[in-house]
Amino acid sequence: MSGQMMRTPLRVIDLLRHANRNHPRGEIVSRRAEGDIHRYTYADAYKRVCQLARALDRLGIAQDARVGTLAWNGYRHVELYFASAGLGAVCHTLNPRLLPQQIAWIGQHAADEILFFDASFVTLVEGIRDQLTGVRHVVLLGQCDSAVGADAAARIPDLLFYEDLISGELADELDWPIFDENQACGLCYTSGTTGDPKGVCYSNRSTVLHAYASALPDSLGLSARDVVMPVVPMFHVNAWGLPYIMPMVGGKLVLPGPALDGKSLYELCEAEQVTMAAGVPTIWLGLLDHLRTHGLSFSSLNRTVIGGSAASEAMIREFEEVHHVRVLHAWGMTETSPVGAVNQFKPVHDTLDRDARYRLQTRQGRELFGVEMRIEAETGEPIARDGKTHGRLPVKGPWVVDTYVGDVAAARQDGWFDTGDVATIDAEGYMSVVDRSKDVIKSGGEWISSIELENAAMGHPAIQEAAVIGRPHPKWVERPLMLCVLRPGHGLSSGELLAWLGERVARWWLPDAVEFVDELPHGATGKLLKARLRERYAAYRFNDQKHSTEDCS
Ligand code: AMP
Questions:
Q1: Catalytic residue among 447, 478, 527, 549
Q2: 525 Cβ closer than 6 Å to some ligand 1 atom
Q3: What are the backbone dihedrals phi and psi of residue 65, each rounded to the nearest 5 degrees, phi first?
Q4: CA of 513: how far to CAs of 111, 387, 463, 498, 548, in Å?
Q5: The model's pTM
Q6: pLDDT tens per residue across span 152-187
């Protein structure tokens, strides 16, 4: 017997319709590419989304059409998310930090039919326009009647302008089409560090369910009282879903545009009284550095979500002890929409001492209801949740990818998606990423976690950032090489750092060498590019191999 409840499909456009009815005065505040601040309400946003949908329809953008964007976090980008999804079209966020030929390849692979771009990307679009053969219209996110507009129009043939495109359209409520909730609404390509990037296509259903689960009190805990600043870009897994979640709960959304330096983020955070921010560790390094240098602190921020790469204990402590900001460590991937796990305490942790709580917070968190995770041995057998034994981390759930664009299988035959991460899960459900499987260092048949070594090094007051890679070793197969960037004005010898590490990690984990470098390479989504480091140090040989053989014995 079927249940007898309404079969109302879950649709992305309903998130904004809900905000329009229940939070019409809720705000979206954006720092525009032009540098100024733009402010309007959910009611204003909804009117413009109706106008935009009519304009898209007029241009022949129908159900399934891919709507490409090259844009920062801003209100027009939000409008594109909702108008395309509302029509049953697919908002395809391109990552402008990739190389132009990669962007053109992805735009072609996705079969984008129209491309919207911010004024910052005029030169980029001019360079790749001819390669985007399926793109029928290119639209500048601005207006014709401006210096940038005139310049862009002179360089890009048949250029359209967003404001001019929508201004003539009716802003009345649209009769949005009803379609199956599995209809696609968003598309994002993986960063493609190995092989070609792969397209992950989100559905209306997966996006709405992800928004519900992420907003729960023990997930990101979001409400109408929150002011949220996603620093994570809208072109990287939909800014972790925050542009969908905030209209759902009615809180204020603060979008930082292209200004991601510590000073600009701090000023926006203070001016708008942000309560929660979200981003990758590299962004917070810049922000914390700015606060330290100028003796500043936050007046409203009470929590920050850190994900994409591991948050170090040192960063978690600094946020908590100096700024009274709780770090919510979170884990996810492009393939998981992205939020799969968030680290929030349970009542059983209330009695833990401070150090134990910080250690717990370095774990990536518990699965959100809907997502299932497990740890597997090489044989595929599930491993006990003991918090110690590590293995592969497969996941499954309604917002986890099944198939990549182009019908390329993503999930395994048994229904699980292999994340490529190596992790542990403890008896309370807290998952901890040990490494990407390709970054694990195999020394004498045992594994060394590069993440744990990096975190230990970043606890040293003189270290700004650290990366650990495995290098070949005649006896131990691989041994760790640590590369460090010092904080400005600090000095440290490798001997001093090794002594510090010696008190924090097992002796046989100690790097065989430490090199100080000016900077470390980061990818288009802010992650350390370990593959590039391995290439750069391909010929590296440890000077003192005796040291490691003794330590490992
Ligand atoms: P992407 O799809 O580019 O977002 O990359 C996903 C990968 O980032 C995951 O498979 C993890 O290896 C890594 N990652 C995400 N969040 C974390 C985290 N909190 N700690 C450590 N690694 C993370």
A1: 447
A2: yes
A3: -60, 140
A4: 48, 29, 16, 9, 9
A5: 0.93
A6: 999 999 999 999 999 999 999 999 999 999 999 999
Q: Which of 331, 337, 367 to mutate to test the pocket of ligand 1 (most atoms within 8 A of CB)?
A: 331
* CATH no. of 260-437: 3.40.50.12780
Cβ neighbours, 10 Å, residue 5: 6
Contact 455, 362 (CB under 8 A): yes
Q: Whose CA is nearest to atom 15 of ligand 1?
A: 308
Whole-number mean pLDDT of the chain? 95
Q: Are 178 and 73 in contact (CB under 8 A)?
A: no
- Is the C-beta atom of 257 inside 6 A of ligand 1? no
Same topology, domains 1-202+233-244 and 260-437? Answer is yes
The rounded Å distance from CA 114 to ligand 1 centre is 30
Residues 207-249: tens digit of each pLDDT:
999 999 999 999 999 999 999 999 999 999 999 999 999 999 9
Residue nearest to atom 1 of ligand 1 (CA): 333
Q: What is the DSSP string of 121-136?
A: GHHHHHHHGGG-TT--
Give the Cα separation of 406 and 175 in Å (integer).
32
Cα(331) to ligand 1 centroid in Å equals: 6
CATH class assigned to 1-202+233-244 = alpha beta
Catalytic one of 79, 169, 272, 335: 335
